[in-house]
Each structure stands twice: as structure tokens, then as C-alpha cells.
Amino acid sequence: QTQLLESGGGLVQAGGSLRLSCAASGRTFSSYSMGWFRQAPGKEREFVCGISWDGGLRSYADSVKGRFTISRDNANNTVYLQMNSLNPEDTAVYYCAAGLRRLPTAITNHYDYWGQGTQVTVSA
To answer: Torsions phi, psi of 31, nearest 5?
Structure first.
């Protein structure tokens, strides 16, 4: 079983940047594709981005392309989300997820493990 813990959220003004981290426990991190999802109040969870087990394939939602960058450091069992040019519509709880699939899929059911989330709030 893999446990995930997000960190790095906070309050930032529009146009600012944040970097989220997701630390995984155990020794199986490198076997998983990783994804970031987010959920705003009253809305369903949505896909943000994903990365394959070796970091060779990345996928982004249209809403964050060119602004967000996902990366991973398998030696430290950590995946990152660099968020630039933030706007108020990015406000949400951000979750990291892990799944035993080769592709960084946008389908939530394809992920097996989830973190508890970290709040990101972007002021106008």
C-alpha cells in the first residue's frame, strides 16, 4: 500500500506561483504513474496533469497547459507540481494520485492511491 501526502498549498495573488509536493511512503513509488487532480467547492474532481513512471510522458488539462509543470524525483519518492501565472479559477483542493498504469490517464478510477489534498487559494 502506498500513502501520499501533499504539501505546498497556500494563499497567493493572481499572477503568482506555487509549487506543490507529493511525498510517497514505501518503496514502490517508481512503479506508479502519478497524477494531480483538483476539486473546487461545489464541483466535481477534475484532472490537472499526469506523469508516467519514468517521467517520459506528461499530460495536462487544457486549462493549465503552459502554466503548470509536473515532474518527479523517484530517488526521493516525490512528485511536484509547479504552478505559474495562477488565477482565481485555480482555487481548489489539489490531490495527488498514484496508479499502476503506464499512461498518465485523466480517468480517476485508473488511480489506486490518493492523498488528502492541499488547499490552493488564488486571490483576485
So the answer is: -85, -10
